[in-house]
């Protein structure tokens, strides 16, 4: 018996604890009966009616006994055009009482009484505590939904431990009976406890019995399988990720059916699309788990159990996916291409991220800045993002067209946005949450909205219990809850503060600004623990960053939608539409980068767990309750209409915006290189080469494009005005991936007048994509060898020094050793661009070329130990050396031996200094670095 009790002690304790707590709740409860109706008789001279809400002139008005409320309402100018009379609050004060007493209408519209007799002799007002419609039905549904969510959460965070469900059921019963000790509460508590156990069972039953079949082959050598591309390609700096769903696997006895999700990383070319059937051969790997991030669990929740890096791939079929989804992906691709045609980087990727949720193409530095400032949610298709979009649209439009029409427009925008970004499950969840917030904002009933939120969460977890582990779902739920319960409180305090300052209250942008601040602060406050637990980082500057960046969020979304739509429909318009979309995107990017550099912008938090989150939310909800309970009453002042109509302030606001845009444009012109100078910029594009040359008369030449399109287009966006999409010449030094891959994107997004390249070819997907892009764009390609000269005006020129006509035979690497070597010169200053030549190419160059001396040397082959030989450095004699190299590259350069040979010469590196720009007037030389 003792062993039995010891083994099942918690079950016995739970079995006795719950009914005992219920019994104690009944025994200790205070029996209270409903009071008799309260008779209120007010003397005529003592009545003062406060009218707050959707009326034309809020304020204090006198009333007499028997007056109808509709008469007093008319004295306030009557309701506004879009008024919901159920939201008008009427309050009265008796001269010998300090407290206000509200007369809620419980959703009933105010109606004028009809009937015989003097309307001044109506019965006095009678107030009952149970006045209004019965809300017990919705309250019960909300309670049961919370019980279900409690069971799901208990199972999810305990690994489906049944004791967690017992504890959750006991806690629910205890709290229920303690808060409402009524007879009917027992049945409700029992039903809630049953739902807790049912939800826990539902979660446990949804867990897979074992890993998918393909996971058994992880870390076991080469595997061959056939799979469907099930998602949109995720483009990275120099690679592409594809999500695959395995269909068949090759075994000893041939092909057999299999299943499982795989994340494949492949080269930038060739490209595959959603719906392609691929045959893949390579090594499957188990996803790793990092110390600060459970990457394996993150992928498993998305159905991915294996990774494969750069396998051998063969395309078998196309168009095998869902036709509707393929159409959506194609539409998003056209919209994204239109933004790329209209905007430079990083504004194009930022606009695509805000509008379409495509955040993978954002540059690494901008992505890091958004993580530091807590603004990364603005370019992610998450519930926080969609809900925030809805809240901001309502806040931005309510002051102009009324809150209810603004809410319906926001709902339409959310539905359209959900379809636009693909209708993924995370997007559907986000749209549901945003729709609930909009309904709450429309009806003005946060209590009902809270119940609807609980029901929506219960429905989602009933369909897919494991969604509770998804960070996107958690952010959706928390952000929506914050906007429902916290944002209205903050908005009330903000409006009360503004009302005490007439000049500020009459300014047309005050109300939208208050709405913006309330929505932003509420979303951040309610999602903070989720961010801290999952990413172990909290941004201290997030409130300020969001307050400054979020206004541009709506503008970026709106202008990007216009630019993408018109640009896709009429492609020739795209370059001109950039003037619309660039200013807000550039502002948002600049604010994020600027604030990310603030000291202590974010802090790392280790070991933040569920207990910390529970404590934080308990304190937060207590604070919200206290703020709501002591919400300031409106001042007894009748607001008069402003002397000038609201629209009168708009021209001044518009003028300010135009002046700001003009200032930015002038700044861009002023920041451009001075005319009459030659500049050469070594671009930070990772492990590869990309060099931008700008001549004294404005000619632009790009030498190589680096290993990926995103890096080189972002770098060009840093150095060229956003309206300048023209390159006079593109030079390909040799057709290797780290030089040619990025040029494919350059040809697609810039107007290239001509191309010259070394007379070399390569059997690679990147080179084939480059030649195909040049053919499709109709750009002439010429072969260049030693002796070719390109004049840049004002005495500046580019000369090809190597290779000689007919090329030189090298046993080791013909492509590298025959790379184009360029000399860029203006009067007495010269820059030597050496591409990837090694020691053999350097010796040949010493023999072939005369006058190798240069002021600036691009160290050959990224600073490899086989380059920059002592003989070559003596011939060149550089005053400055620049190494184009990627940060943390796996190839090793720049080699210590090479750097030692350059001792005594100032060396600039793109991995440490970012973009390195040198410019000259022919006599003097200036050097500027990005970092």
For the record, give the distance between the C-alpha atoms at the N and C termini, rounded to a whole number.
74 Å
Question: Compute the gyration radius: what is it?
Answer: 34 Å
Strand content: 15-25%
Principal-axes geometry comes out as globular
Count of individual helical segments: 30
List low-confidence stretches.
8-16, 19-46, 86-135, 636-659
- On the 0 to 100 scale, the average pLDDT is 76
The assembly state of the depicted protein chains is single chain
Which structural class fits the helix and strand makeup? alpha+beta
Major sheet: order of its strands? 24-23-21-19-18-17-32-33
Fraction of residues in H or I helices: 40-55%
Total number of beta strands: 33
Largest sheet: 8 strands, mixed
Would you kindly provide a written description of the structure presented here, covering whatever features stand out?
The protein is of the alpha+beta class and about 950 residues long. Helix content is about 45%, strand content about 15%. The strands form 7 sheets. Strands 24-23-21-19-18-17-32-33 form an 8-stranded mixed beta sheet, with helices on one face. α29 links the parallel β30 (about 880-885) and β31. α8 packs antiparallel against α9, α8 packs across α19 (about 540-570) and α11 runs parallel beside α15. The longest helix is centred in the middle third of the chain and has 28 residues, at about 540-570.
Quick overview:
Helix content is 47%, strand content 16%. The chain is of the alpha+beta class.
């Amino acid at each position: 018996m003792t062993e039995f009790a010891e083994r099942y002690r918690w079950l016995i304790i739970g079995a006795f604890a719950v009914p005992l707590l219920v019994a104690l709740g009944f025994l200790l409860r205070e029996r209270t009966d409903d009071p008799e109706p309260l008779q209120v008789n007010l003397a005529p001279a003592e009545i003062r009616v406060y009218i707050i809400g959707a009326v034309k002139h809020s304020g204090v008005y006198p009333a007499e006994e028997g007056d109808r409320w509709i008469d007093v309402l008319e004295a306030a100018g009557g309701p506004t055009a879009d008024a919901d009379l159920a939201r008008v609050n009427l309050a009265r004060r008796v001269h010998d009482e300090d407290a206000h007493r509200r007369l809620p209408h419980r959703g009933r519209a105010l109606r004028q009484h009809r009937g015989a007799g003097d309307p001044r002799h109506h019965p006095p007002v009678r107030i009952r505590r149970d006045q209004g419609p019965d809300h017990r039905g919705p309250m019960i549904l909300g309670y049961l939904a919370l019980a279900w969510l409690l069971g799901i959460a208990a199972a999810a965070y305990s690994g489906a431990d049944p004791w967690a469900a017992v504890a959750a059921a006991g806690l629910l019963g205890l709290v229920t009976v303690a808060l409402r000790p009524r007879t009917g509460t027992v049945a409700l508590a029992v039903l809630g406890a049953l739902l807790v156990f049912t939800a826990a069972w539902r979660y446990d039953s949804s867990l897979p019995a074992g890993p998918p079949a393909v996971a058994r082959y992880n870390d076991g050598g080469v595997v061959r399988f056939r799979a469907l591309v099930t998602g949109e390609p995720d483009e990275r700096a120099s690679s592409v990720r594809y999500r695959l769903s395995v269909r068949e696997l090759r075994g000893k006895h041939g092909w057999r059916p299999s299943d499982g999700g795989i994340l494949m990383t492949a080269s930038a070319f060739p490209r595959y699309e959603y719906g392609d059937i691929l045959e893949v051969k390579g090594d499957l790997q188990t996803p790793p788990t990092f110390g600060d991030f459970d990457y394996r669990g993150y992928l498993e929740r998305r159905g991915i159990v294996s990774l494969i890096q750069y396998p051998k791939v063969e395309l078998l079929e196309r168009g095998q996916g869902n036709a509707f989804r393929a159409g959506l992906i194609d539409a998003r691709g056209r919209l994204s291409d239109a933004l790329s045609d209209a905007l430079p980087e990083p504004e194009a990727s930022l606009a695509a991220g805000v509008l379409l949720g495509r955040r993978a193409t954002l540059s690494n530095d901008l992505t890091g800045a958004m993580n530091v400032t807590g603004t990364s949610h603005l370019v992610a298709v998450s519930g926080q993002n969609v809900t925030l979009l809805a809240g901001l649209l309502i806040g931005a439009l309510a002051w102009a067209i009324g809150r209810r029409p603004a809410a319906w427009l926001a709902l339409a925008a959310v539905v359209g946005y959900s379809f636009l970004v693909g209708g993924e499950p995370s997007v559907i969840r986000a749209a549901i949450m945003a729709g609930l917030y909009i309904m709450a904002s429309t009806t003005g009933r946060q209590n009902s909205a809270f119940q609807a939120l609980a029901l929506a969460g219960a429905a989602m977890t009933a369909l897919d219990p494991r969604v509770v582990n998804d960070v996107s779902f958690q952010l959706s739920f928390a952000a929506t809850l914050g906007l429902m319960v916290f944002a209205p409180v903050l908005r009330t305090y903000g409006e009360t503060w503004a009302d005490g300052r007439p000049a500020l209250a009459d300014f047309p942008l005050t109300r939208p600004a208050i709405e913006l601040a309330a929505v932003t602060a509420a979303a951040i406050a309610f999602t903070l623990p989720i961010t801290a637990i999952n990413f172990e980082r909290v941004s201290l500057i997030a409130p300020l960053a969001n307050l400054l960046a979020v206004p541009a969020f709506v503008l970026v979304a709106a202008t990007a939608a216009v630019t993408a739509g018109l640009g896709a429909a009429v492609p020739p318009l795209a370059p001109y539409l950039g003037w619309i979309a660039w200013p807000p995107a550039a502002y948002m990017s600049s604010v994020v980068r600027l604030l990310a550099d603030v000291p202590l912008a974010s802090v790392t938090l280790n070991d933040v767990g569920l207990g910390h989150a529970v404590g934080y939310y308990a304190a937060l909800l207590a604070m919200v309750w206290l703020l709501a309970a002591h919400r300031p009453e409106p001042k007894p002042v009748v607001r008069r209409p402003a002397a000038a109509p609201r629209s009168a302030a708009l021209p001044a606001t518009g003028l300010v915006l135009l002046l700001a845009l003009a200032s930015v444009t002038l700044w861009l012109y002023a920041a451009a290189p001075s005319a009459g100078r030659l500049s050469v910029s070594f671009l930070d594009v990772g492990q590869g080469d990309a060099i931008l040359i700008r001549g004294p008369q404005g000619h632009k030449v790009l030498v190589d494009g680096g290993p990926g399109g995103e890096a080189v287009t972002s770098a060009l966006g840093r150095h060229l005005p956003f309206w300048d999409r023209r390159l006079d010449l593109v030079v390909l030094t040799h057709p290797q991936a780290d030089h040619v891959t990025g040029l494919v994107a350059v040809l697609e997004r810039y107007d290239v007048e001509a191309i010259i390249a070394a007379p070399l070819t390569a059997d690679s997907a990147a080179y084939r994509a480059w030649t195909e892009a040049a053919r499709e764009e109709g750009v002439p390609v010429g072969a260049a060898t030693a002796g070719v000269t390109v004049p840049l005006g004002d005495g500046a020129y580019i000369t090809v020094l190597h290779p000689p006509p007919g090329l030189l035979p090298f046993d080791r690497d013909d492509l590298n050793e025959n790379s184009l070597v360029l000399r860029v010169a203006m009067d007495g200053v010269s820059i030597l661009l050496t591409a990837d030549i090694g020691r053999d190419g350097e010796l040949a160059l010493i023999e072939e070329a005369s006058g190798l001396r240069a002021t600036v040397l691009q160290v050959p082959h990224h600073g490899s130990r086989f380059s920059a030989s002592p003989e070559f450095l003596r011939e060149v004699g550089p005053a400055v050396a620049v190494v184009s190299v990627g940060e943390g590259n796996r190839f090793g350069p720049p080699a210590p031996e090479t750097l030692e040979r350059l001792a005594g010469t100032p060396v600039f590196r793109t991995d440490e200094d970012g973009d390195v720009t040198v410019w000259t007037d022919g006599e003097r030389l200036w050097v500027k670095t990005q970092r």
